[in-house]
Design brief:
Elements: E1 2-10, E2 15-17, E3 19-24, E4 27-33, E5 42-53, E6 55-60, E7 62-63, E8 66-67, H1 74-85, E9 89-97, H2 101-117, E10 125-128, H3 150-158, E11 163-168, H4 175-184, E12 187-190, H5 197-206, E13 208-211, H6 228-235, E14 240-244, H7 252-262, E15 266-269, E16 284-287, E17 290-295, E18 298-300, E19 306-309, H8 313-322, H9 328-335, H10 337-343, E20 360-363, E21 369-374, E22 377-378
The protein binds zinc ion (ZN).
């Protein structure tokens, strides 16, 4: 057992000062005033540091020069995890975009085996597509966008433990299929969709509980008569959403507005690609057959369509505070507590409270990462 004594601690809801975090093995034993620590306990001082639960990224295609779609393997996941630690992320959903059935099978198998060894590092797979709307496909390969068939419906439901999230378009899927997938335990998320307000609301009623990269690749509010898919998310009292805070995907005023309406149901996601945390000079990569160029921090194909981001979670937190005007607590919660709740894993990760895994990030005054801890051990 040992105690971390930082400058301040964010427990998931509140910022504390003069507070120590006591760690026993892999878990957090509890928080207590520094003055009340046992004289005998080993102390690890972190002067000037702010401690927060490790960040959780619900949508990560790749980072550090690798893409999960390109090499669906445990080695890719291990490399993504190692890269993530540099920016405070201790859990992520590897995200496979629109792919053939065989790649989806392989991704499920790879994630299943990886999770068995590192259960909270990768809480599950995020399948983004292929059951989406061609009209809002973004960079997803058109040839692979297809309807959900009964064989794949059975496959998905049979592997619900390993599939944390499935992004689909409600208007091109049967309500009964959405309900089955949701009841099997997969979080169904609306995305790459041309749904009207009414179609989105019908999807929510069928079991959709989340929205993928809010605003991007979904029907906006066109005018007073057409609330669109974005308006449906705002009108729902239960649907959460991921949002990309890189300054390229969404205007910061829209992020602020989304936060005002969704509160703790809004999660920071990176939707990052190989470009995030990549070595200096890394300027292009292959994303499902499309060449994506990294230009001034943006990832775009030859037509200028955004193809993921180069964002890290720590950078996203800084952007939320500096540019979107959120409070430090709100920004940190969007990267830790909120995504843990979206996954139903708040008893294990995402909060810096007794009983949770000792997965945490230490930040300096400028919110730069000083250190990252996984399972009670400093990794960075
Ligand atoms: Zn997408």
């Amino acid at each position: 057992m040992f105690a971390l004594t930082p400058d301040s601690v964010f427990d998931g809801q509140t910022l504390h000062r003069n507070t120590a975090v006591v760690i026993a093995g892999e878990r957090i034993h509890g928080l207590m005033p520094v003055a009340e620590l046992d004289a005998g306990i080993k102390q690890h001082p972190l002067p000037g540091a702010l401690l927060c639960a490790g960040f959780i990224d619900l949508q990560l295609n790749g980072c550090g020069g690798v893409m999960f779609n390109h090499d669906i393997s445990a080695a890719t996941l291990a490399h993504m995890h190692a890269t993530n630690l540099q920016s405070g992320t201790t859990s992520f959903l590897p995200t496979l975009i629109t792919s053939p059935d065989q790649d989806m099978h392989r991704a499920v198998q790879v994630v299943s085996e990886y999770r068995a060894r590192h259960p909270y590092q990768v809480p599950g797979l995020h399948l983004e597509g292929p059951y989406t709307n061609m009209a809002r496909r973004g960079i997803h390969p058109a040839a692979q966008i297809r309807p959900l068939n009964d064989t794949m419906l059975e496959f998905l439901c049979g592997h619900a433990n390993d599939i944390a999230m499935l992004t689909l378009a409600p208007e091109v899927n049967r309500d009964s299929a959405i309900t089955r997938i949701s009841k099997a335990g997969i979080r169904v998320s609306m995305g790459h969709t041309a749904a009207s307000y009414e179609e989105a609301m019908a999807g929510f009623a069928a079991g959709i509980g989340f929205a993928t990269h809010l605003y991007n690749a979904m029907t906006p509010t066109a005018n007073g008569r057409l609330p669109g898919a974005v308006g449906a998310v705002y009108d729902s009292l239960t649907v959460g959403a991921g949002i990309i805070a890189d300054g390229h995907h969404v205007h910061y005023a829209n992020i602020r507005l989304a936060h005002r309406l969704l509160g703790t149901r809004l999660c920071l996601v990176t939707d990052a690609t190989a470009a995030a945390g990549a070595p200096e000079g890394f300027d292009q990569f292959n994303f499902c057959g499309a060449t994506v160029y990294v230009r001034n921090g943006q990832c775009v194909d030859e037509n200028g369509t955004l193809g993921g981001s180069a964002l890290t979670m720590a950078e996203g937190v800084r952007n939320l505070v500096k540019h979107a005007g959120l409070s430090l607590e709100q920004a940190l919660a969007m990267a830790s507590c909120n995504p843990a709740c979206a996954l139903g894993l708040e008893q294990h990760i995402g909060l810096l409270q007794a009983g949770r895994l000792a997965n945490l990030v230490a930040l300096d005054q400028n919110l730069q990462v000083i250190a990252t801890m996984v399972n009670g051990r400093f990794s960075v």
